Amino acid sequence: MAPKYLAALADTAERVDACLALRSAVFRGAAGVSDRDRFDEVCEHMAIERVSDGRVVACFRFMSLERGAAVDRTYSAQFYELPGLRDFAAPMIEMGRFCVDPGVRDADVLRVAWGAMARIVEARGAGLLFGCSSFEGTDAQRYQDAFAMLRDRHIAPPRLLPRIKAPRVFEFARRLKRTADPKAAMRAMPPLLKTYLAMGGWVSDHAVVDRDLGTLHVFTGVEVGAIPPARRRSILAGT
């Protein structure tokens, strides 16, 4: 069966503009408000295009780092202190601004996007993939079960645990007392974060309140060597 979607590096101004247009619609939601920022000039951009008409239906940007010492120049470092990552010896990749056209409800889009990211990780020998995973809105009460599950099962190992840097945070690992309802937690968990967690990923012990984008986000990382082999093969295959 011919593929419905293809992943392509945005190596032309037209593709980059199409990615930015989608991002602006998803993250800004207002006509004429651009999502472009200073990181767009130093990142590479990946477009997921629908084969039938060439339309960009998903995109993300990524930054390759040769070693952890360069982590302070990443987008995530604006919000989190990352002392553990500074000592990370292997190459790393930061992925950000991952979004899907809300009018396209097809799981194949995510599979193609993650397959493309996995091949980049493999080709560049990255030992860590990381970024910020966002919850819609800034009301932490909406996500109590999700945060309780993250607290109980998915906090970063102490050697890599991000520290507080942003002025407004929700310290869910310290402040939240409730027991998670697993079904409610998974319903509230963002799709991007679910994928990270399925690969053995971990998160910060606090969420940043991002007033600019109107979100709550957690630092999210996955050590490539810890991804279960079967899961790694399936992601590489885009299935």
Please state the CA-atom Rg, rounded to the nearest Å.
17 Å
Secondary-structure element string: EHEEEHEHEHEEHHHEEEH
CATH homologous superfamily, by name? Gcn5-related N-acetyltransferase (GNAT)
CATH architecture: 3-Layer(aba) Sandwich
Pick out the low-confidence regions. Answer: none
Write down the CATH class.
Alpha Beta
User: What's the overall average pLDDT, rounded?
Assistant: 93
3D structure, described in words:
The chain is of the alpha+beta class and 239 residues long. Helices cover 31% and strands 26% of the residues. The chain is built from eight helices and eleven strands. The longest helix has 17 residues, at 107-123.
Give a brief description:
31% of the residues lie in helices and 26% in strands. By secondary structure, it is an alpha+beta fold. It has one domain (5-237): 3-Layer(aba) Sandwich (Aminopeptidase), CATH 3.40.630.
Which key terms come to mind for this protein?
239 residues; 26% strand; 8 helices; globular; alpha+beta; Aminopeptidase; 9-stranded mixed beta sheet; 31% helix
List the helices and strands and how they pair.
Elements: E1 5-9, H1 13-28, E2 44-50, E3 56-65, E4 80-81, H2 83-86, E5 92-100, H3 107-123, E6 128-136, H4 144-153, E7 163-164, E8 169-170, H5 172-175, H6 182-188, H7 191-198, E9 202-203, E10 207-210, E11 215-223, H8 229-237
Parallel strand pairs: 5-6
Antiparallel strand pairs: 1-2, 2-3, 3-5, 4-7, 6-11, 8-10, 9-11, 10-11
Helix pairs in contact: 3-8, 4-6
